Description:
The protein is α+β, with helices and mostly antiparallel strands. The chain is 37% helix and 26% strand. The radius of gyration is 23 Å and the shape is globular.
Amino acid sequence: MRLVDGAREMMIDGLDRIRQECGIPTSFPPEVLDAAAAAAARTPGAEHRDRTGERFVTLDPASSTDLDQAFAIEQAGDDVILHYAIADVGWFVRSGDALDREAFERAVTVYLPDERATLYPTVLSEGAASLLPDVDRPAVVFAVRVAPDGTPRLDGVERALIRNQAKLAYDTVTPADLPDGFAELHRRIQIAEAARGAPRVEFPEQEIARADSRLRLHFRPRLESEEQNAALSLATNMAVGEALFAAGTGLFRVMPDVDERRHRQLRNSARAFGLDWPASTPLDAFERSLPRDDPRTSAFLIAVRRAAGGASYAPFEPGVRPWHSAVAATYAQATAPLRRLQDRYVVEAALAVANGDPVPDEISQAFQELPAAMSQGDQRANRAERMALDLAEAVVLSGREGEIFDAVVIDESDRGVEVQIVEPAILVRLSAHRVDPGDEVRVRLESVDVERRSVAFQRVG
């Protein structure tokens, strides 16, 4: 979620309280800062092959400075080869050093509307390790061969020195800016997803904006360039996941399928948003059919994310095929090491496996320890982001006490009835009788407490 049009001033105190309540760090210990400064001064050596003459580019939000990924694309017969350069965080951070120990405590970068708590000090994450434009940077380059049917295969992994030739932005990039084969690569990944029945979607952001002298909470649909760029990471992470699984090692991102009860809830959500979901259409096909520029689509995709439950991490286990329901495949994350702790270890394992070397013992041991560290970090980040959303909802609804809103019942349990308010798109729980999932109701906003990040509704019809 991000803030626009002056809403930050209304939320800054609440966000400071959220950081304190959730234990979100606001600075790094001096020894970690010293270690980061020393690491940033390291010069890549002979193990980094010089690829600075190749045209690698990045594609990110215009304001981003923590650039994990750069890419180049070539055609090889019927195949498209993606050269995906990932920030070589392992060159700067070593297992067991002060930076690594601090990263284990943080696990992920935490994004709140006003600022972020980075995984590594910014001298690395937005400096020496970031694939910034027009400077030479160490990277780990994955060669991913994508067949005409969209199947990705890991062809090689190497350390290299690259130069980002152009920092492209999602909202201004044109097809002419991108390497030849970019659109074709995305098309192939889409074909493969449809064949697998993968419901993978990139979820929208929530924004706070001013409208008619009041604040409004709404969803910002993702741009086509964002969707296309996500396909590069997907292809790479799938190829890495298969390579590690075949080698009997690795750490995998896993997520269960949406169960029958939550599937019914999603059908009620679709009805709430006025979306026509034919009974014979599977969830994945329905998601892909929705128009991305419709705010109702954004609200429904948020409901899908909640219904799927949380993803987690699992180390390799003999005889067990790791499964990620949103991808409908075996999947490992290796493409965001500046923002996720575990990616650095997966990158190192992929380097070893692709070059026929044994995975270092400290990497294999970390695969057993990382699920707990990542779970703790993800839970802390998710809790803070959920609190920030509750705060935003309270801010948006403040001063609207007594108003009546249209809603649809999503679920009922011994804890009450869960309803989806249509506009603004807010999910709330309240007491109600003689209702069934799917029923249309009207609810009145009874109270708002911005300090406690809470709102209370009552059914009135």
